[in-house]
Design goal:
transmembrane helix, membrane, binds 2-acetamido-2-deoxy-beta-D-glucopyranose, 3 helices, eight-stranded antiparallel beta sheet, elongated, Immunoglobulin-like, alpha+beta, ML_dom
């Protein structure tokens, strides 16, 4: 009786043992599939050219409450504000070069009559095979810039993702390619700086606000970008 009782149990155990590799196999398969799905939805941005196209088709809401109607003549209206004129000048720069613009640089973040000082555009990065953001800024400094502060605020799919701030003059002192060379004397500067988009950035919609405060703490420029990866 006892023996009979044990035997079937042993058989059951044996069956379980045989099933173990199958269960492990299935688990690994499921896990890899989940990882693959995660990878595909989160990190697979597709080729840079596709991301460029996707961003070309994002309709940026007019950041300045200005009419950027094509072919509209300014000459008749002498009252056209510097705000409107600067916005048009930079839009023309983007159109003429067929750039994919993902943002604007202003002299203020929120002022309604803010003046457009530049554009942020998306470019393929030959070094990494990914993408980079090039920011053009034409700025006239009234005061010397010998320190200053650079601040950034990033939102991802509408949620706060990251914010940080750095001393402007030493921001890239450890980088291979330096782009900031303090001190800056008062005068006109045409800046073009590059920032690589990390390869591992998660797919989704990004919104960034980056601004530079001068030595006296007053805002010099504010850049606002919107893009999808
Ligand atoms: C920015 O400055 C450069 C250099 O002076 C000039 O060639 C360019 O036309 C300016 N861009 C705009 C849109 O004003
Ligand atoms: C970035 O991604 C591209 C495409 O997936 C790949 O070819 C390239 O090697 C990656 N670069 C780095 C630095 O990881």
């Amino acid at each position: 009786m006892n023996l009979r009782g044990i035997c079937p149990r042993k058989t059951v155990n044996m069956m379980n043992v045989r099933k173990v590799p199958l269960i492990i196999g299935l688990t690994i398969l499921t896990l890899s599939f989940s990882m693959f799905t995660l990878y595909m939805t989160m990190f697979n941005h597709g080729p840079p050219s596709e991301i460029m196209e996707a961003n070309r088709h994002i309709l940026l809401k007019p950041q300045n409450e200005v009419q950027l109607a094509v072919g509209e003549e300014d000459e008749e209206d002498e009252e056209v504000s510097e705000s409107v004129q600067s916005a048009k000048r930079w839009q023309k720069f983007v159109d003429d070069n067929k750039y994919v613009a993902i943002g604007d640089v202003f002299d203020s973040c929120d002022n309604k009559d803010r003046i457009t000082l530049g554009k942020a555009i998306l470019l393929p990065d030959k070094e990494t095979g990914g993408l980079k953001v090039r920011t053009f800024i034409n700025i006239t400094l009234e005061q010397p810039l010998t320190e200053g502060e650079f601040l950034i605020d990033v939102k991802y799919n509408g949620k706060d993702l990251y914010d940080n701030h750095w001393e402007f003059c030493t921001i890239d002192e450890n980088k291979e390619v330096r782009q900031v060379f303090c001190p800056y004397k008062p005068g006109f500067y045409a800046w073009a700086t590059d920032k690589k988009i990390p390869n591992t950035s998660v797919s989704g919609k990004y919104y960034t606000r980056a601004w530079l405060n001068g030595d006296d703490g007053r805002m010099l420029t504010c850049g606002l970008t919107t893009f999808v990866l």
